[in-house]
């Protein structure tokens, strides 16, 4: 179980997270929604220790993330970055198999490559992509390679930062199904950030909405439509008018 | 008072920077000794920093050696000392110009490319991605580059020294009328072991500084394209200045003690 307790993070005088409380149960899929720039990406980066909060504690299975062995801790995670963050000096298959080629999870090269190609297939990419370099792929293809890399070592906990942005509707559907499958079939715990309400409804067991540096609303996806929160209501229906101010 | 405060502030900033760089250097050194080790990265670094720097090092050295011979000849002619060309070319190349020019060329070629590459990785979250893939960026990026530079730059300096001396030889025997065999003999007789050792030692220090600065500025890059630009510029400036300062100190250590 992942638990954030009163997490604060600011950049200069930009107070991004102002006391985030969030609980994610094992083997469930949580989706974080919220306006652009509200700190969703920062929020999941704090869990991985990529961003150090000024205040608050984060625990995974009851253990404070700042007090664990980093290598063992990180070996349990997979992460898809919003911008892909592929290593542009390595061909696609080595990006996907990065973890399987070195360190504690190292496998023979041929085996690692076979796994990489299988993961690429799962995200809808053909084997001929394997030997290309990230810069030779389209934005949506890069995103899917990032996704394949995140799931390559079959981690227990996976974070997806906007997995379907930049994909066509059919491909987005395939990716949504894939994430759902990973949770139900492999029992992984996932946190997904998305703006796409179709994704939310396909992927989520639980939904949390980040607004004003705090979790504004959290609950099962089935309660989302009946939530009497005007912020949630405005967000999920994409209304221009409502309590969420938009500078135009 | 304002003036004093400004001096104090600047001193603090400089001290803090020295502290951060020293800490970075120390962390690099401690990671040098701990597993895992990335041989593939090391191979690439050796190839990039050592082998692929050969052309620029060779060209720099040959022209410098040639110009040096011309200058010593015309300067020496003022007091009938034209004959010292082989000795002064040898000592000038090996003690000072070889290591310093190679060091500066490495700062231009290697430091800038390391800084730009790592800064781009930082800006595009590739460094974060490395961390999430259980790979320590210091170990994966910094250690191979710093180690490769520390090992190969002395070799480059040695090669630069030889090519520089050859440049002087070519000019002296080709246009200034020196005897070929005598030129070589004079050079060999004159150079001492200490000259060569100092040259190669300087090379090792300069290589370490050049790669370390590239990594340090890259890892601490600001955001966006501007951040990458600043990191690159800062790394080359810092490497060049530190190489020249280290050269002064090392020359003092080798030749005035
Ligand atoms: N390294 C950083 N330095 C300074 N400010 C930052 C940094 N990273 C993020 N921020 C700021 O933190 C805020 C939240 O950023 P974050 O990337 O978490 O937003 P987000 O909710 O993921 O938005 P989006 O949906 O557009 O991806 C933004 O205002 C951003 O400007
Ligand atoms: Mg984001």
Overview features:
A: 248 residues; alpha/beta; Rossmann fold; 4-stranded antiparallel sheet; 10 strands; B: 257 residues; binds magnesium ion
Explained architecture:
The complex is a heterodimer of chains A (about 250) and B (about 260). Helices cover about 35% and strands about 25% of the residues of chain A. Chain A is of the alpha/beta class and about 250 residues long. Chain A has two domains: about 1-75 and about 160-250, Rossmann fold (3-Layer(aba) Sandwich), CATH 3.40.50; about 85-155, no CATH class. Chain B is mainly α and about 260 residues long. Helix content of chain B is about 85%, strand content about 0%. Chain B has one domain (about 40-245). Adenosine-5'-triphosphate (ATP) binds near residues 16, 36, 40 and 41 of chain A.
Mean pLDDT of chain A: 91
- Mind telling me the CATH class of the largest domain in chain A? Alpha Beta
The major pleated sheet of chain A works out as:
6 strands, mixed
The CATH topology annotation of the largest domain in chain A reads as: Rossmann fold
Ligands bound here? adenosine-5'-triphosphate, magnesium ion
Order of helices and strands of chain A: EEEHEEHEHHHHEHEHEEHH
Strand content of chain A: 15-25%
Q: Which structural category do the helix and sheet elements of chain A fall into?
A: alpha/beta
Q: What summary fits the major beta sheet of chain B? A: none
Task: Write down how many β-strands of chain B occur, each being a DSSP E stretch of 2 or more residues.
Answer: 0
- Which percent bin holds the helix content of chain A? 25-40%
Count of helix runs of chain B: 9
Q: Please indicate the count of domains of chain A.
A: 2
Low-pLDDT runs of 5+ residues of chain B are: none
Largest interface: A-B, 25 and 15 residues
SSE string of chain B, helices as H and strands as E: HHHHHHHHH
Q: Which stretches of chain A are low in confidence, meaning pLDDT under 50 for 5 or more residues running? A: none
Short summary of the structure?
By secondary structure, chain A is α/β, with parallel strands linked by helices.
């Amino acid at each position: 179980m992942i638990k954030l307790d009163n997490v604060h993070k600011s950049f200069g005088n930009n107070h991004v997270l102002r006391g985030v409380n969030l609980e994610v149960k094992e083997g469930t899929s949580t989706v974080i929604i919220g306006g652009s720039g509200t700190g969703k990406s920062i929020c999941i980066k704090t869990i991985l220790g990529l961003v150090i909060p000024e205040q608050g504690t984060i625990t995974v299975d009851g253990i404070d993330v700042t007090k664990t062995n980093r290598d063992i801790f990180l070996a349990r995670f997979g992460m898809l970055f919003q911008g892909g963050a592929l290593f542009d000096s390595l061909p696609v298959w080595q990006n996907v198999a990065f973890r399987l080629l070195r360190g504690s999870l190292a496998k023979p090269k041929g085996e690692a490559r076979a796994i990489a190609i299988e993961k690429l297939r799962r995200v809808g990419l053909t084997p001929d992509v394997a030997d290309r370099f990230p810069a030779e792929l389209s934005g949506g293809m890069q995103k899917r390679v990032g996704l394949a890399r995140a799931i390559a070592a079959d981690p227990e906990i996976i974070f997806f930062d906007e997995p379907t942005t930049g994909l066509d509707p059919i491909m987005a559907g395939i990716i949504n199904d894939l994430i759902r499958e990973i949770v139900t079939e492999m029992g992984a715990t996932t946190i997904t950030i998305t703006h796409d309400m179709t994704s939310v409804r396909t992927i989520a067991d639980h939904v949390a909405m980040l607004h004003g540096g705090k979790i504004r609303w959290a609950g099962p996806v089935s309660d989302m439509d009946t939530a009497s929160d005007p912020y949630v209501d405005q967000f999920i229906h994409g209304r221009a008018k409502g309590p969420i101010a938009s500078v135009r | 008072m304002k003036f004093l405060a400004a001096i104090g502030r600047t001193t603090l900033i400089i001290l803090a920077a020295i502290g951060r760089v020293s800490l970075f250097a120390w962390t690099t050194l401690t990671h040098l000794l701990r597993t895992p080790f990335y041989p593939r990265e090391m191979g690439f670094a050796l190839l990039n920093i050592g082998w692929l720097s050969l052309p620029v090092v060779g060209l720099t050295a040959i022209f410098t050696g040639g110009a040096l011979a011309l200058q010593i000849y015309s300067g020496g002619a003022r007091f009938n000392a034209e004959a010292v060309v082989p000795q002064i070319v040898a000592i000038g190349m090996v003690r000072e110009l070889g290591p310093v020019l190679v060091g500066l060329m490495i700062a231009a070629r290697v430091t800038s490319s390391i800084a730009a590459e790592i800064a781009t990785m930082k800006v595009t979250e590739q460094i974060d991605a490395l961390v999430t893939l259980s790979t320590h960026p210091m170990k994966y990026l910094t250690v191979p580059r710093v180690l490769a530079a520390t090992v190969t730059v002395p070799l480059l300096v040695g090669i630069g020294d030889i090519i520089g001396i050859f440049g002087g030889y070519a000019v002296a025997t080709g246009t200034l009328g020196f005897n070929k065999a005598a030129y070589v003999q004079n050079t060999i007789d004159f150079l001492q072991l200490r000259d060569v050792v100092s040259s190669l030692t300087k090379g090792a220090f300069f290589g370490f500084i050049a790669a370390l600065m590239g990594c340090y500025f890259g890892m601490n890059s600001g955001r966006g394209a501007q951040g990458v630009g600043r990191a690159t510029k800062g790394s080359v400036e810092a490497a060049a200045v530190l190489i020249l300062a280290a050269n002064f100190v090392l020359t003092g250590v080798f030749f005035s003690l």
